[in-house]
Amino acid sequence: MTTEYPPTFGLVLAGGLARRMGGGDKALLKIGGETILDRVLARFGPQCSGMLLNANGDPARFARFKLPVVADDIPDFAGPLAGILAGLDWLAANAPGTEWMASVPGDCPFVPRDVVPRLHEARVAEGKTLACAKSGDWRHPVAGLWPVALRADLRHALTEEGLHKIEVWTGRHGVALAEWPDTPVDPFFNVNRPEDLANAELLAAQHPGL
Length: 210
What we know:
single chain; alpha/beta; Spore Coat Polysaccharide Biosynthesis Protein SpsA, Chain A; two-stranded antiparallel ribbon; 6 helices; 31% helix; 21% strand
């Protein structure tokens, strides 16, 4: 695996409605005494040249993390592509020298510590524009790598076409797959339901290195 890759900003996507958890912010739920967001930032942050958080509503609830919080500007909760666009727009305005953004979900407490370099490695090896993660038989399109140069195309897809399915849009541009094993723990295990939170607590206790 190469250790050299272009400067890449990190975006944690925490803008979902968390319906299966009964609402609220999944990223602020605790596992082993620390929030999922703390865990994500500790693992993902060192790989990135800077960090952003995508969340809607009052940003003050994330104030202690001292990160820029960007909200969707596409109405009606248009899904993760709206959060990705918000991050790309922020980068274009505030970090114009940065050409790449990597994203991970805000509900993945075991996100790999090498996700950014491995996404870049897959992109280069396969000659593709985009890259996303895969573990076992499952693709994780939200754990992905995004060129800032595609933000206008993405905005057009969202606002003019009403396209909200992430894999339809990525498929247009070509997406490489960076693969991880899903055992003993799936690194892209996400907390969608109360029982997932309980399972995450158990996994964290059983595998303290996570």
